[in-house]
Amino acid sequence: DMNEPASFVHGAVGGCRNQELNFPPYIPQLAYRSEGLLFKTLCMEGQQYLPDGSPVRHYDVHNLYGWSQTKPTLDALRNITRERGIVVTRSTYPSSGKWSGHWLGDNTAAWNQLEKSIIGDAKCEGFPPSSLTFSSKQNNPVWIYDELFSFIQRQDPVAWNSTFEGISRKVLNIRYTLLPYLYTLMFDANAHGGTVVRPLLHEFVEDKTTWEIYKQFLWGPALLISPVLEQGATQVNAYLPDARWYDYHTDEYIGVGGQFRNLSAPLGHINLHIRGGYILAQQSPANTTVYSRKNPLTLTVALNDSQVAEGQLYWDDGVRIGTC
């Protein structure tokens, strides 16, 4: 956390010297764009030194700071525990994903940030969007359902009334039931560089309609998630790409896609659809994954137009290092 590196002094107490570096011609469209690159960090002309003694400007190495922490942290964790571990970092750079996960920082309980979380979490593990972006701060959004409960300081399910507790249990049970499918996706991402959470265009690249869809996403190639992103909404206008689709909750065949549909989305219901041609491995959840892994595995077989389906399952002890 705060490993960008971060500073609550913008640049330096006496100001920065190099305007061109601190206010370059192009700055990403961020809320603090007018503050320049020095916002909550060092002056870009700040002098740093590489291990061999070579001088570099902070401008050239800012994004490498968090990147350089990920592998040593993971190595230390493995050496201490002699088992697998998970490292997540707020600051990343290309190739960081080989050693760590990524979290998005201080998200708040706001509808616009719920929408942004889908775009920002194309590499995260959670389901539904509520679990995709969680930090340790108390101002996090709670969007397990189709409403945000931002007025509650404690945002764990047991802090709510029995109605919301029941909805939470229902949704989280779906997530844990799908862990074998998710685990297999994680293995594939680790071993072959695939994606776990992906935009629709990754699977339907020739369908130009999918190129601009950012309010829906897929788990792997087979599970389509269409969340409600507007307060008070009881329907979601979802695009179903050209394939056979089945309702996850009822197994009902809903027809061939290639069009938008208005889907009912009452409180506590998240629209999930399985793509024809795929097999999803599932397992009944228990109080912990140690016990759930002892439960029988089940398969959901969703046939395509040719009445064919295929799938994968990766399974190991979940503990040893290097089994992938």
TrEMBL record:
Keywords: Glycoprotein, Glycosidase, Hydrolase
Top-level taxonomic group: Eukaryota
Residue ranges occupied by any Glycosyl hydrolase family 31 C-terminal domain in the UniProt entry: 193-280
InterPro entries linked to this entry: GH, Glyco_hydro_31_C, Glyco_hydro_31_TIM, Glyco_hydro_b
Limits of the Glycoside hydrolase family 31 TIM barrel domain: 1-119, 153-185
Annotated GO biological process: carbohydrate metabolic process
Gene Ontology molecular function: alpha-1,4-glucosidase activity
Similarity section: Belongs to the glycosyl hydrolase 31 family.
Stated name of the protein: SUIS protein
